[in-house]
Fold these 4 entries.
Entry 1:
Amino acid sequence: MRDESGNWVGRLRPRLVVGMVVWLVVMIGWLTPAGFDAVDDTNTVIGEGLTRKARRNVMFLRANALCGTTAVRPAG
């Protein structure tokens, strides 16, 4: 609702406020790990446009494919 001068008056509906808080938490939860990954020193671009981390993952997946295993690569 607006007053005579065109300014908004009143309060936001509680469900809208809850939705905005949930959206904010999701964004923070999504961008925080992405930010840490972006500044990770193992994320240096090397040949073929791959990062060191991506190349390590590709090599691990190729090794598993050759061995016929489905092992999970340890983090780090």
Entry 2:
Amino acid sequence: MTNLSEQSDKDVTPHKESNDDKGNQASYKNVKPEKKPNAEPENPLREQK
């Protein structure tokens, strides 16, 4: 029973970190699809410049 409690605590720690990472990744994913046109980076890059 103690082992299960310890594993649950350990499972919650990485899970919490994963959630934080997911939130950060969500922002990155939002930029990834917009930056997906890497084939034409000169177009978006020129527009941003």
Entry 3:
Amino acid sequence: MGQKYSRPEPCYHGYGDQPPAKRPCICRRRSSGLILPRGSKPDLFPHYQRPKQRRESFPFIYVLLYTPHHDNTIRTMSVGQRSILDTIAAEGVHFALWSSIMSVGGGLGEIFVNHDARMHIAGEHAIPELLEAHKRSKYLTNLMLLVSGVSGALAYQQTKDNYWLIGSGLMLAGIPYCALVEYPVAEQLKFLTLDAKSEKARTLLASWGGIQLGKLALAVGGATIFYWFARR
């Protein structure tokens, strides 16, 4: 009862957020020999700083960043990614071959089936049918050309044969061909829908077959190169 102690500096060791004026620091009490309050536990490490709250809130990140196996984890992920890329590159020959064959088949169907049928019907029916067919098929056609070109580049990375780059260039050339040659003709035909019997509309409708023939020639060239060197 007669012991006195000076008011400690603000310290929260062992008491959480309780004001230090009412409950002084445990380390001061332990040094002064005072009896601890009932129910309280002494802080064996009063000056130990707890880890940041960020580590406690995200234990998975804490384990990933502060374990000795972190380097092995990164190394394993990089090896796994490399194996996936190697697998894709190894299958590039098959992707290039089959996607180019599909592009050739689509071009043959457009020229000898769809366009041939349009030339035997009235212009007021042929032009809307052409525009609707082009609207639906342009995305799939460009996708096949893109897949074939990229797969040819991957096949070159695997085989180191320059002819795969030539075939890839022919397939990828079909994409700007569609944008610069095919698309402007389709846009002109949109404005001639109401004047489908005019001479200009008939000329543009007839030129559509030649445009598709040029795109088919690019696809046939790329597919031929792919098929020839895939057999080697």
Entry 4:
Amino acid sequence: LGEGADADLGALYCVHVTSTKRAGRTQTQLEDTFGLGLNGAYAEFAVAPASALVRVPDCVPPAIAAVAADAGTTTWNAVNGVAQVRPGQRVLIIGVGGLGLLAVQIAVLAGVEDLSVSDPRSHALELATRFGAKRTFTPQDLNTAIVGGFGVDVVIDFVSTAETFRVAREALREVGTQVGRRGRLVIVGVGHEDVKINLADIILTPIEGFDIVIPTLYGKKEDLASVLDLLAQVWPLI
């Protein structure tokens, strides 16, 4: 423990590894980030500035805290910091794997009642329903619903392919026709395939009534603290 470091020896901490600012405003600098710009994500020991430490509540075990420091912080930032979901909004989450299921729970916690999800896997849709989603769609069913007039205010895309981009835009078109309302598409997923997108589809979105936001890969230190505080309220599970 270095001189002047304000930390308790023997306590469990998460390390906030970047100085990420809100997505859409300042791009995260990843060159000095463990596991991305620097080797050492799985090192047994690492030197970290005391200012980057976030105390883990005593009731939260290390394995759960590790998830909070990465997946939890990323999702919290995407849902609350970037999408800024709130009660009364219609929200669609595309892709309900690990991060998507976290997003479902965080959105419900934020007061979203009209929550829809899309995923090709039936077991993922079942889990999303258990966690609070009101409507579930396979990709095919979602396309059919959109043709029939289904629309939302916010789409959070954890898949991010050319097809999900198209579907998200279509789902947001309806809100763009309403005076005084704007939709928002938040792109979180980082896929490996090349995505071909017509630039006009991006440039014209403000006219169509919604905004596209690409968040950073992480979140703020305050986001990590919020996730840990939330875990302390529900852990241990009974």
